[in-house]
Write a structure and sequence with these properties.
Helix 1 packs antiparallel against helix 2, helix 2 packs parallel to helix 5 and helix 4 runs antiparallel to helix 5. This protein has one domain. The chain starts with a helix and ends in a 15-residue tail after the last helix. The chain is an all-alpha fold.
Length: about 170
């Protein structure tokens, strides 16, 4: 199971990187269109869709690598028992909130598909297509947080530190 979950988080990270490149390509295409009048429509909308997919798909991968911002001032000043209770409480709250986000993202995507909702821009893209990235990213984040909550409850969680504080001046 651990191998599957790690592959899931890595796959989401690779998908986020792919959509980051797509964002770049759409921005460059938009610039080229303005300069050379190719007549390409919707490049700015597609760049926005790709940027949203990139952001949501990167959440779980970033979380599992310890790269999310954590305020550890209170944790550092706490005893081991209090620190563990705060970690469990934080992970539980984050899991519940991300579960709600995933549920409503999936629901929004389904409703956009069911109502045949399309973009109001000149691209007329069915909105369920770009919303899939948000729904998948939110769901994988929920799985990652639930995974860490279970590991913390079992006493097997390893908190990764990014080392970013070491690079600050």
């Amino acid at each position: 199971m651990r191998g599957f979950l790690d592959r899931l988080y890595n796959a989401a990270g690779y998908a986020a990187a792919f959509f980051m490149v797509v964002t770049l390509l759409m921005v460059v295409a938009g610039i080229a269109d303005r300069a050379l009048a190719f007549g390409w429509r919707g490049t700015d909308m597609y760049a926005g869709y790709a940027m949203a997919a990139c952001g949501f798909l990167a959440l779980a991968h970033t979380f599992k690598r310890g790269e999310h911002i954590r305020v550890t001032l209170l944790l550092q000043a706490s005893s081991a028992r209090v620190k563990r209770l705060l970690e469990i409480w934080s992970l539980f709250a984050a899991t519940m909130l991300s579960g709600a986000l995933a549920f409503y993202a999936i629901r929004l995507t389904y409703q956009s598909w069911d109502f045949h909702d399309i973009s109001t821009g000149n691209d007329a893209t069915p909105l369920w297509i770009p919303q899939i990235g948000m729904a998948i990213g939110a769901t994988v984040l929920f799985i990652a947080l639930l995974d860490d909550l279970v590991l913390e409850l079992r006493g097997k969680r390893v908190v990764h530190s990014s080392g970013e504080m070491l690079r600050n001046e």
